[in-house]
Amino acid sequence: MPPGRFLSDAEIQRLEGWPESIERREVVRFFSLAGEDLAFVRAQRGAANQLGIALQLGAVRWLGFVPEDLPGAPPEALAALGAALDVQPRAIFDYAVRAPTRVEHRLLVRAHAGCRPFGERALDGLRARLIEEALEHERPSLLLARICELLRRERIERPSIDRLVRLVGWARERAHEQTFQRLAPQLTDPIRAKLDELLVTNGGQCQHAWLRSRPTSVSARALRRELDKRAFLLGKLAADRFDLSSLPPNRRAWLAQTGRQQTNQRRSRG
Predict the structure, then answer these.
(1) How many CA atoms are closer than 13 Å to the CA of 81, on its beta-carbon side?
(2) Separation between Cα atoms, residue 238 and residue 83, nearest integer Å
(3) Could you read off the pLDDT tens digit of each residue along the chain, which spans 270 residues?
(4) For residues 58 and 113, what is the distance between their CA atoms, to the nearest angstrom?
């Protein structure tokens, strides 16, 4: 994959299409027609149109979006809709050859399902929540899944994966900014100077490298070394008085992991 990209072509294709399987309870919940739903679908002219618009309605409620490949829908979903409409499932291959018809039907389905289109207006009320999700979930693939779930709960139709990937990048950048802003009041000039001193090489090793090193044996000497590190953190850096409560637990864990794993050279450049 190209640098910075976290989804492979196969993963993008999977996320843009239908899931490989569907559970029976999901068929019943999302692809059953009755009452207002059945009347809405029956209002369309022709068996293929009825099946096509019913399938789109179920997809929006199940997935939060409508895959382009309608005939590729799970056979169980097509069979359930076909039985409810007394239409053969293969009629989906005759549905809406004309693109304008699909667009018109998509608008009808969205309105009936009570969904909003993805756009700046819909995002305005979600930006703060997206940042909070990014603060809690640093891993891009997990953050993508959380954003998809949030859009589905808010009944906002999911856009293309490409747009969602850009949204993940935006949310991660804002989360990094928020992390610094929340900790900035405690990062006084004296504290920053002490933290910078940790990266200064003295005798071949900087203090940061010493702090992040792990014991290589079980001995009194190794125990003393670890106790010296804790005494240093408490005495010189007052680490016990550094308040991280403004950050979600996973963000604190990410900061700790970053501190352990990043090289001193990279940290110096940052």
Answers:
(1) 30
(2) 70
(3) 554 578 999 999 999 999 999 999 999 999 999 999 999 999 998 999 999 999 999 999 999 999 999 999 999 999 999 999 999 999 999 997 677 788 899 999 999 999 999 988 888 888 999 999 999 998 999 999 999 999 999 999 999 999 999 999 999 999 999 999 998 988 888 888 888 888 888 767 788 888 888 888 888 888 888 888 888 888 888 888 888 889 999 998 888 888 777 665 554 555
(4) 9
Q: Which two tokens stand for residue 184?
A: 């900035």
Contacts 24+ apart (CB under 8 A), 1-10: 5/165, 6/140, 6/141, 6/165, 7/141, 7/144, 7/161, 7/165
- Phi, psi at 229, each rounded to 5°: -65, -45
Check if the beta carbon of residue 73 is closer than 8 Å to that of residue 86: no
Domain regions of the chain by residue span: 9-113, 120-184, 187-269
Looking up tokens 């929006």 gives: 60
Half-sphere exposure of residue 149: CA atoms within 13 angstroms, side-chain side:
8
Sole residue written with tokens 């997206």: 130
Q: Which two tokens stand for residue 61?
A: 């409620």
CA count, 13 A, side-chain hemisphere, 140: 14
**Residue listed under structure tokens 């693939």:** 141
Secondary structure of 141-178 as H, E, C letters: HHHHHHHHHHHHHCCECCCCHHHHHHHHHHHHHHHHHH
Residue 88 burial (10 A CB sphere; 0-12, 13-18, 19+) = middle
